[in-house]
Design a protein that fits this description.
The chain has about 325 residues and is α/β, with parallel strands linked by helices. About 40% of the residues lie in helices and about 20% in strands.
């Protein structure tokens, strides 16, 4: 099957992920779970591999005792409610929601089905759980602590690029979590004597005009807030920053892998592996409201020295030693 045809199938809700079991006469005895993702196809493949390894480590074997139904919106947030309804009607007995938007869609469209989220940015702040210790409903999982992480990213950005005074902040305004991040960034910027200029995108089609506006304003740096949409557009964003010779701080190493300068954030691979433990416990009878929301335990600072040299930036040995990985 050609990649274009595969993308069309996944975007429409028909999934061909490796773990998905084919339906047949032997499937009636399998436990059925669903996975709902807004992330682009290639991102989902990498992270779901970690989730699948976590399931196998816990004794769940595809085709023997477990069936996993994947649904990907491929970056189109408006598809999430329909895809969540498809999973509910399949039916599945649990939905793994990749992040905050998927969690909201699953809780709304698939009422009564437990939801485990893998990388929710702020589940308390948007009301998906009552508290981290006592979720109080049908949803639980891992929180990425996005508002706190955004502040830390800004602080590190200033430390590594001291000449910063004006920073453009790129974020997806269609994701309510990002509004929380923006609010949290303001006092951090004031403490660092930085001016922040917000630049919102509501849809992928907005990106070109937004980047043109950023280029016209000539900021000293670019901070990109983490979100399935900005991740999906990462190649365009990184290419823009390189072409404009603009230092940039990104939320995930996925940006640095395609040429971004630096990133700081939770280790997504570890979070997806840990998501398997929530699925395991819920399938074995645990109630989501009794499973506290966990926070990341592994963070990574990644620096791309090739990009730094292109931007005429140099980092001291001390700063480089603090990085978890330096890409040469």
């Amino acid at each position: 099957m050609r990649r274009r045809e595969l993308i069309a199938l996944i975007g429409g809700g028909l999934i061909a992920w490796p773990l998905a079991a084919s339906r047949g006469r032997d499937s009636d005895h399998l436990r059925r779970i669903g996975v709902l993702s807004a992330a682009p196809i290639e991102i989902g493949s990498r992270l779901f591999a970690a989730f699948e390894r976590g399931l196998r480590d816990l004794g769940w074997h595809q085709g023997r005792d477990l069936m996993v139904e994947y649904r990907s919106a491929d970056g189109h947030f408006d598809r999430l409610p329909r895809l969540a309804s498809e999973l509910a009607n399949f039916p599945v007995e649990l939905i793994l929601a990749v992040s905050g938007p998927e969690t909201k869609a699953a809780m709304t469209a698939a009422k009564g089905i437990p939801v485990a989220f893998a990388v929710h940015g702020d589940p308390v702040g948007v009301g998906d759980v009552q508290s981290l210790a006592h979720p109080g409903g049908l949803a639980t999982g891992s929180s990425q602590m996005h508002p706190e992480l955004s502040r830390k990213q800004l602080e590190l950005f200033k430390e590594y690029v001291p000449a910063l005074s004006r920073v453009a902040v790129l974020w997806n305004s269609a994701n309510p979590l990002k509004a929380n991040d923006w609010v949290e960034l303001k006092p951090a910027a004031q403490a660092l004597a930085l001016r922040l200029d917000p630049h919102e995108i509501e849809a992928p089609a907005d990106l070109d005009a937004t980047l043109t506006r950023i280029d016209a304003q000539r900021p000293d740096g670019l901070l990109v807030l983490g979100d399935p949409r900005t991740v999906g557009l990462r190649a365009v964003i990184v290419n823009f920053a390189s072409g404009a010779r603009l230092p940039a701080m990104y939320p995930f190493r996925l940006f640095v892998d395609v040429g971004g300068l630096m990133s700081y954030g939770a280790d997504l691979t570890d979070l997806f592996r840990r998501a398997a433990s929530y699925v395991d416990r819920i399938l074995k009878g645990a109630r989501p409201q009794d499973l506290p929301v966990e926070q990341p335990i592994k963070f990574e600072l990644v620096i791309n020295l090739k990009t730094a040299r292109m931007l005429d930036l140099s980092f001291s040995p001390t700063l480089l030693a603090r990085a978890d990985e330096v890409i040469e």
